[in-house]
Amino acid sequence: MANPLTPDVLVDPVVLTRALVDVESVSRDEKVIADCVEDALRKVGHLSVRRVGNTVMARTKLGRDQRVILAGHLDTVPVDDNLPSTVVDDLIYGCGTSDMKGGVALALHLAVTLPDPRYDVTYLFYESEEIESEHNGLNLVTGAHPKWLQADLAVLLEPTYGTVEAGCQGTVSAQVSLRGRRAHTARAWRGVNAIHAAGEVLRRLEAYHPRTVTIDGCTYREGLNAVRIFGGVAGNVVPDECGVEVNLRFAPDRSEKQAHEHLREVFDGFQLEITDSAPGARPGLDAAPAREFLAAVGIEPAAKLGWTDVARFAALGIPALNYGPGDPALAHAPDEHVEIGKIRDGAATLYRWLAR
Ligand SMILES: [Zn+2]
Q1: Of 81, 114, 146, 177, which is least surrounded by CB within 10 A?
Q2: How far is the CA of 332 from the centre of ligand 1 (A)?
Q3: How confident is the model at residue 305 (pLDDT cuts 50, 70, 90)?
Q4: Is Transmembrane a UniProt keyword of this protein (predicted)?
């Protein structure tokens, strides 16, 4: 297959978005698109290019004091009868338009057309963001080539509809277990009902007042919820077991460990087991490249409430934010699309920020 990412395609981020969308790249099937991206980058004299698996890295080596990362995942969720792309008025429709080939197009367009940026830039095009973390290209690079990720700021071009979403909340899942003693319901006094014991757990959840925390102008709203409950043996048995699964979303001023301690305090006196957790990420907007980025965008940042790959950078001590042309509400939807105007705005903003 001839590479569709030709020089005349690369110079126009809108045309480039369509070309990227039309190379199907469902998670674990990113070889072809990674080949195309790698080939396009290798033809550019001012970049040094490396590849591991289907993750491609390109960087300038201009000796600048600071380095920034522009990153985007190459994979999409499964196609839903929405390829190849189509254009209706100002909208490009197709799988991956919003999440996130519109964003990938911006990074690739800048990589090729901006030989002399004001910071050194590392461009990362990575595989398998949409599936389990063990396949995630950023995760693999963190282990195998940690130097690729050294930077003063990372911008992930995930869909934010042209706003800046900084940091992200952490998450903890846990199970509160209640024990009782089985008995025939006809002789219930011989048993201890574990489901009744869950009443106090639910009352604590109902009475819980989640915090609202503002960091660097970004407001994070915490939440603690029961998400599943199970228990019961049979219609004539006093149950001896009950479990309440809870999920805490916590603001990034708490560490993961502090979030665990907080849950143990809330459910003091009960048996609690942490089943899964991931740290949040502070917005980190006080670093100089981040302040200049915000000035280029010209609007106030907002908090990211879900968990994103931003947290992987934060874990390495690199401030990171999301900024992309796609609409997050359209990600993974069959009518997924991206506005052509948002792509053009995004390219102009990144140029304002990175050009000298
Ligand atoms: Zn995405």
Answers
A1: 81
A2: 9
A3: confident
A4: no
Contact 18, 95 (CB under 8 A): no
Q: Out of 99, 120, 127, 129, which one is annotated catalytic?
A: 129
Neighbour count for residue 161 (Cβ, 10 Å): 17
The confidence score (pLDDT) of residue 284 equals 82
Cα of 159 vs centre of ligand 1, distance in Å, is 7
The whole-angstrom distance between residue 9's C-alpha and the CA centroid of its chain comes to 28
Asked if 317 and 146 touch (Cβ cutoff 8 Å), the reply is: no
129 in active site:
yes
Compute the Cα dihedral for 309, 311, 312, 318 and give only its sign: positive
Contact 249, 303 (CB under 8 A): no
- pLDDT for 295 equals 93
75 catalytic per annotation: yes
Q: What is the pLDDT of residues 133-171, one digit of tens each?
A: 889 999 999 989 999 999 999 999 999 999 999 888 999
CA–centroid distance, 76 to ligand 1, in Å, is 8
